[in-house]
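Let us work through a complete example step by step.
Step 1: write down the sequence.
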Amino acid sequence: MQRIYFDHNATTPVDREVLAAMLPWFSEKFGNASSIHSFGQEARGAIEQARGHVARLVGSRPADIVFTSGGTESDNLAILGLVRASRAERKHIITTAIEHSAVLNTFQALEASGVEVTYLPVGREGVVDPEAVRQSLRPDTLLISVMMANNELGTIQPIEEIGRIAEQADVWFHTDAVQAAGKVPIDVSALRVDLLSLSGHKIYAPKGTGALFVRSGVRIEPLVHGGHHERDRRPGTENAAGIVGLGRAAELALAKLPVEAARLAALRDRFERAVLERVPATRVNGAGAVRVANTASITFSYVEGESLEIALDLKGLACSTGAACSSGAIEPSHVLTAIGLEPAEARGSLRFSFGRANTSEEVDRALAILPGVVEHLRELSPLYKKPVAIL
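Step 2: predict the structure and record it as tokens.
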């Protein structure tokens, strides 16, 4: 069976060029980047070169990039680190109802410790209103955190406008760009972002790698304590192999971005049009918003999404019911219910996310599989009435 992978928002394969760049750092190039001898300085040079590549991907200075273990750590370091560094007695922070769990659960932990949190709603298309952000500001507001692109819908948030609001109010602004980095151009200065998180395994680098942009002048406390690595912001001997891989992946992502974004948008749009034409009682979530090029969230009425995901996988098509970290959750997606879907509709939705290796032929094969599987599962539902053809 030729398998099709349409779940690149969950993770991506390590690019062959990325793997080739990493391999020497697992064996013959083994120095500790904190050592002052030649072995250590060789590792230090490779890490700083990678830092430059990541900085160029987001439009920052290399000195403002902190290497981490991934998007979750980057989000935690940004949010917890900033709040802990603040000496204000009262703290108020703002986020949206559709953030990734790495942000939402961190905000909930802070809320339990006495920090006041505002969770902003989003519209039917999954986009937060910047005016709602403005109206939520208070004299004690410390931080706004709004993701750049949603991991389930692909919708892109008005980050530049929110950045202006935060700057005018003298409030720190963090964005989780895990699903945006490498898919859309990013310039942290133009966006007026103070902290930005990204993850390696979403851009064809290895799992366990990530980065956090911290604008000069922003004080954060480290989450763990040890040495003076990463300018006292993230102690621990650097993962040279992983960082080299992340750097090469960032370099490739930036070079490929314009052409790849256009190619993936064409694949996604063709796929969505065909699904809507061939499968009745379906709709694309967030279709009216600006989205990253590779993501399609589709609701299939009268079908349970996890059953559909499993049935498609048995036919060789891999996709997702939503965020990979929430796989198996009993509750419907918080993102889909936030945009107004009923729980049953949310549970009947799938995310298809395309990547570099996907082709038009794979889209055709997927479209040959999908309608029959959906129809079979619907026939098992007592709520579904098959449309009768009118002759």
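Step 3: interpret the result. The CA atoms of residues 282 and 300 lie 5 Å apart.
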